[in-house]
Amino acid sequence: MKSLNEEQSQVVVDFVAWGLDMHAYSKKELVYRTNLVLAQIGAASLEQGLVGNTDTSLSVLADKLIAIQDVSFDMGWQEAINRTQLLNIVTPTPDVLAAEFERLYAVDPEQAVKYYYFISESVENVKVKDIARNIAFTHNSKYGDIEITINLSKPEKTTAEIKAAASAPKSSYPPTALDYTNEGYVGSVTAAPRLTHRFIRDDFSGETWGWHYSPYAYFEEHAIFVNFKRQAMEMGQRTFTRLMQIVTRYPMYMVGSNADLPIVGGSILSQEHYQAGRHEFPMMKAEIKQTIKLPDYEDVTVSVLNWPMTAFKVSAKHAADVVTAGEYLRRAWENYSDESLMINATSAKGERQHTVTPIAQFKDDQYELYLVLRDNGTSDEYPMGIFHPHADVQHIKQENIGLIEVMGLAILPARLLMELQQVEKFLVDRATIEEVAESHREWAQDIKHTRQASPANVTEIVQEEVGKVFVRVLEDAGVYKTDAAGQAGLNRFIDFLTSTK
Question: Which of 16, 158, 163, 376 could form a disulfide with 353 if both were Cys (CB 3.0 to 4.6 A apart)?
């Protein structure tokens, strides 16, 4: 074991000072925490009498400590575990974090949330540097500005890591990446290290829920709320009630749930969870197309939005009124069919096909619940889903259209970065069509025939065309199209809503 010089010692002292700044421990634990760091980096001693400061970020200090360690790792996941072992030394324990959060919440909920986000960024539970790699732009459409991102934040695994994961023993612990047993989990070749992972626990509808910030956030303060009960995703009055409870406790955030069916739902249907954050999505800025009145819900306003997917906004002064009106609308949709538009409440096998994607927020002293109609049906022509991105737009987006996309924020795969660069080269005659990915060739040729691209404007043109495709993606996922037949069908459903009880 080595002794540290003054510069290295200062790194250790500054690192431990961060724990004080995050209220992880008191000054009484400084020596104890310092020795934990020394043990982790394989050092015997350090220079005495140094004063710690937090001018340098905790992430940068972790980099320096790993350099002092002078350890090489065959696999990236081993290095990630080593890093979180260091950061865990100065991270508040779950009890300490919860106590400080509740102390601040009693004074000002906004301060409690800011504190928790500060912790999450500091110990890299929010991957700030990785998120910064994402490409983001907006597209002006007839529905308003649509947000587009190409997701480059998640690191790609090497071939060696993929092989190691494939040959690793299967484990059911933690059962999912969302489960509460991830809190403090060391990690492995198949599971990300979560030593610094912390939940804020809440009680909603008599159940224990926990929430944390998403490591690879798609929007501002992107949070995940998880039901510790380990039940499958569901949709109904209990869901709406919990969403209202969350925005009551955290009025600074919107919160929504993926749908509970496979084609129109999210990627983890086995674990009930919601997504929240401090972001006004394009759908929330959409113009109101018409306002309707539901029978027996006089204190509730229901609006139909000008949006590529069929979206209603239910709003009222009291959360309970929004919940009951929202449930009335959901139940009506669950059992409604219009075969002329391939809208069927059940499949040929009698399986439920209708559900909603709900989003809640508290705004201007009103509770709001957005309900987007979803249909899980398939056909011979559309085996991946009648109301799923169709084949001609899947070169841009073929994955399920989940909660975030529904609201107008495209999460596009990393593969597009290189593929779109080749499209740009083709448009300015610096690449042949054969050098463009096959899935994009017809699209690229159409752009070339209709747009005048130059090196100065080609990126802007391609981004605009990507935006147009994503609008089509949303229109494909919409149950009532914006054409005359679709609008007539929507009017029939509205008549059904307003004339039955």
Answer: 376
